[in-house]
Amino acid sequence: MLETLSLMGMGFIHAMNPLTLVLMIGATALGITIGCLPGLSAAMGVALLLPVTFGMDQATGLIVLGGIYCGAIFGGSISAILIHTPGTPASAATAIEGYELTKKGLAAKALAVACFASFCGGLLSCISLYFFSPFLAELAMKFKSPEYFWLSIFGLTVIAGVSSKSLLKGFISGILGLLISTIGMDPMEGVERFMMGSTTLYNGVNVTCALIGLFSMSQVLILAEKAIKKRAKAAKFTGTFF
Questions:
Q1: Is the dihedral of CA 140, 146, 147, 148 positive or negative?
Q2: pLDDT tens digit string along 15-40?
Q3: What is the pLDDT of residues 125-171, one digit of tens each?
Q4: Global confidence as pTM
Q5: What is the full DSSP assignment across 227-239?
Q6: Is 219 exposed, middle or buried (0-12, 13-18, 19+ CB in 10 A)?
């Protein structure tokens, strides 16, 4: 424990360097910009900007990459709240409630709540990573097929909590998600499944593309329905032919 605290102190001292702080702020702002663009995930932003950190100090480079990643995770909430299209897969749940506040004129409040929640979540996760990562690594090594199976079942039960208004729709969406997840190469047998001769589906359907497509298409259909309803309607026919 004392060794961990000493390493944390050394890390904070290095992070307080003015140049490191400027780079961290710039990386976070760039990450927010990447995250709010649908199609560019946090991992993709880190991968694209990884060559920029080659000339930096090791600790400074890690701080910059961490700032890009954390900023991108929050940035995905911006497009999710404003246009009902999550910028990153982590913002899919934000699009459900956040866009409802935007329709009520409370977009600023939704963005403020998302920013505060991202800050608190990031801070708690960093503290947990410092103290609990060795124990979590040992626990992860003990995960076998039964544990993964029950973890998958737990993920499916979350559908019941998210879709409390219509459990049938939740189950239908869960089944469709399972069917989409079967597309690609079988990780156990190496057999092609529903690829239809396309090599781009070798690794399955990208989660980011699927989420953006589903949320965007639903919003397009909703806007199209509103436009159709606004069209002028013919008066009711009351007369007779004779």
A1: positive
A2: 788 888 898 899 899 988 888 887 77
A3: 888 887 787 788 888 888 888 888 888 888 777 776 766 677 777 77
A4: 0.62
A5: HHHTSPPPPP---
A6: middle
CB 213 within 8 A of CB 176: no
Of 73, 65, 64, 76, which is closest to residue 21 (Cα–Cα)?
A: 64
CA distance linking residue 184 with residue 55, whole number of Å: 38
Question: How far is residue 69's CA from residue 34's CA, in Å, rounded to a whole number?
Answer: 9
C-alpha dihedral, 132 to 135 to 139 to 140, nearest 10°: 60
**Contact of 116 with 122, CB cutoff 8 Å:** no
Q: Are the beta carbons of 96 and 44 closer than 8 angstroms?
A: no
d(CA 42, CA 70): 8
CA angle 172, 202, 46 (to 5 degrees): 90
Q: Do 191 and 185 touch, CB atoms closer than 8 A?
A: yes
Question: CA separation (Å) from 5 to 1, 36, 122, 128?
Answer: 6, 35, 19, 13
Residues in the chain: 242
Residue 41 to residue 63: CA distance in whole angstroms: 18
- Unique residue bearing structure tokens 């929640």: 117
φ, ψ at 208 (rounded to 5°): -60, -45
Residue 180 burial by CB count (10 A; 0-12/13-18/19+): exposed, middle or buried? Answer: middle
